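so my prof wants the structure for this chain in the tokens format not the other one, which i didnt know existed until like an hour ago. anyway here's the sequence
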Amino acid sequence: MQFLADYHLAGLVIGICTFLIIGVFHPLVIKAEYYWGTKCWWGFLFFGIAGVIAAIYVDNLFLSSLFGVFAFSCFWSIHEVFEQEQRVRRGWFPKNPKRTYKF
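here's what i got, hopefully its the right format
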């Protein structure tokens, strides 16, 4: 991590990692809603809380930042999984034929 500090690259690397974390969560939300519906929001809540706890207890600023980004990406995914259900309802995304839907 000293390399990042020596060349003032920590902010850039955190930004890249943030972009990648958010990029992973987009298909994750789509797949989670497809297979489990909106009841998967509990998993996002659990991992979000775990990420907050990790961000608080990790001494390294770089890792703490990444845990914080991960945690709040999980929290945002709770909202997005319900939005994804609406997108499926509108026909923008396919329904899972093995699931029953409320709508």
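also thought this was worth mentioning. The mean pLDDT is 94.
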